[in-house]
Amino acid sequence: MNRSRERILARVRAALADVPRDEEPAPVAVPPGRAATDGLVDLFADRLEHYRARPVRVGAADLPEAVAAALRRRGAGRVVVPADLPEEWTSRCEAELVADDGLDPAALDAVDGVVTGCAVAVAATGTIVLDGGAAQGRRALTLVPDYHLCVVDAARIVADVPDAVARLSPVRPLTWISGPSATSDIELNRVEGVHGPRTLEVLIVSSPGTGA
C-alpha cells in the first residue's frame, strides 16, 4: 500500500513539475511563546497580505471609525453581527446591523457581510482562529456571508501554531482562517468564495484590552 501511494505521488509531482505556482512566503523563524510585539504584528500583517486578505492597523480609540470606514469601502448596507459584539465597535456605523438570533442560511446569504472578533491569531501563518466565544458568534456567521470584517486585538496574536493551540480549548468548535476562502480547480486556477467569504478584512487593534 505504501509503495503504491509513493508511486502515485511521484507521478503527480512529475506531472506538476513545470506548472507555475504562487510564490510561497519565505519561512520566518519566530521564537515560541513571545508576546505580541511589533515584530509579530508586522509578520501577521505580511502573512495576511500574502493570502490576499486586507490588514488595517488601528488604535483602540480609532476602532469604531475604522469599522465604519471598512463597511463604507465595501458598500455594505446590511451587516450581521454576533449578539454579544461590543456596541462600541459599531457605534459609528451607517450600515444596518442585524443581530444574529439563529438566522437561517438564506438570511445570512442576503446580508452584505459580517463583523466579528477572534479567539487568537497566528503571526507565522497569518491565521485567525474562531472558537465561538465572545464577539465571534456561531460558525455559520463566518461561512455564509461573502465579506468578513474581523477585529483582532494585538494581544491575541501569538508566534506560531503551537502557541495558538496552547491558548485554545480542545472542546470548543474551532475555525482556522488563513485568508479569504479559496480553492483551485484541476488546472490550478484559483477560485475564491467557494466555501466561505470571498473577502477577508482584518482590523489589527494596537492597544491591549479592546479585543473580543
Report on the structure:
The chain is α/β, with parallel strands linked by helices. The protein has one domain (35-205): Rossmann fold (3-Layer(aba) Sandwich). The protein is 25% helix and 23% strand. It has helices at residues 2-15, 38-50, 63-74, 105-110, 161-167; strands at 54-58, 78-81, 96-99, 113-116, 120-122, 127-130, 147-153, 157-158, 175-177, 182-184, 190-192, 199-205. The strands form 3 sheets. The chain has a 6-stranded parallel sheet, with helices on both faces. A hairpin with a 4-residue loop joins strand 5 and strand 6. It is globular, with a radius of gyration of 19 Å. The termini are far apart. Mean pLDDT is 83; it is low at 22-35 and 188-194.
Question: In terms of topology, how is this protein built?
Answer:
Elements: H1 2-15, H2 38-50, E1 54-58, H3 63-74, E2 78-81, E3 96-99, H4 105-110, E4 113-116, E5 120-122, E6 127-130, E7 147-153, E8 157-158, H5 161-167, E9 175-177, E10 182-184, E11 190-192, E12 199-205
Parallel strand pairs: 1-12, 2-3, 2-4, 4-7, 5-8, 7-12
Antiparallel strand pairs: 5-6, 6-9, 10-11
Domain LUD: 108-205
Pfam family, one: LUD_dom
Protein name: Lactate utilization protein C
